[in-house]
């Protein structure tokens, strides 16, 4: 018993410091005629350690449309979330609040964004992130309103508490449409100023993940079991 507990403890303590970065929110259908510049995805670091995102890339893997590498020094703390968008950080934060971490990107040096379809299917929209070695970290083929996926119309799609792994977030059943007051979602402070015909404030939860598995909780559980085992020996 002691051996098993110590092995589990060692596995936790020596687990990779890079954490696990997953896509946790997608906003593809904002109020008005949005563009790839104003659309965005949120990523969450489900690990305990800060991850260096320098040189990482975001894009639509189905359309082979990718951002330029993220700036050197871009990081995401353990348990934190950040929004990846072509919209200027100051503008985004005026809509959603100053506390949201924003990772801006360009495409071939231009601020054109990465467009996400409103009528997505199983074959045409896959937001994805790649690390600096061009290795796929996570991808989500969302299907708005079909095959068990919720639809968003002025509301983002967000990952439910049941879905916080890179495998579980592939399933539409683990996603929901944002509703103000539920799982951290709220109504935007203002109408998006970069969408000329936007008529309503959007609803989303940028920078807030509904739940993030806490590595410390697992560590405490193992320590408790280990202590019990030692007391019984």
TrEMBL record:
Domain LTD: 9-146
Signal peptide: 1-19
Keywords, alphabetical: Signal
Pfam families documented for this protein: LTD (PF00932)
Presence of the UniProt keyword Methyltransferase in the record: no
InterPro entries: Lamin_tail_dom (IPR001322), Lamin_tail_dom_sf (IPR036415)
Keyword Magnesium attributed: no
Record-given protein name: LTD domain-containing protein
Organism, scientific name: Pseudobythopirellula maris
């Amino acid at each position: 018993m002691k051996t098993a507990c110590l092995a589990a403890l060692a596995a936790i303590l020596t687990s990779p410091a890079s954490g696990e970065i997953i896509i946790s929110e997608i906003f593809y259908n904002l109020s008005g005629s949005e563009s790839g510049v104003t659309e965005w995805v949120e990523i969450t670091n489900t690990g305990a350690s800060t991850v260096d995102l320098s040189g990482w890339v975001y894009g639509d893997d189905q359309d082979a449309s990718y951002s330029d590498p993220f700036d050197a020094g871009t990081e995401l703390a353990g348990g934190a979330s950040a929004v990846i968008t072509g919209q200027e950080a100051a503008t985004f934060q005026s809509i959603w609040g100053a506390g949201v971490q924003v990772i801006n990107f360009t495409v071939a040096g231009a601020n054109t964004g990465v467009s996400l379809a409103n009528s997505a299917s199983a074959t045409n929209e896959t937001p994805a992130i790649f690390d600096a070695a061009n290795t796929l970290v996570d991808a989500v083929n969302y299907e708005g309103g079909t095959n068990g996926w919720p639809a968003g119309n002025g509301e983002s799609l967000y990952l439910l508490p049941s879905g916080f792994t890179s495998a579980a977030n592939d399933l539409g059943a683990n996603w929901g449409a944002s509703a103000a007051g539920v799982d951290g979602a709220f109504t935007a402070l203002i109408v998006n100023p970069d969408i000329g015909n936007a008529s309503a404030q959007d609803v989303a939860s940028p920078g807030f993940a509904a739940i993030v598995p806490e590595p410390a909780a697992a560590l405490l559980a193992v320590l408790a079991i280990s202590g019990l085992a030692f007391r019984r020996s």
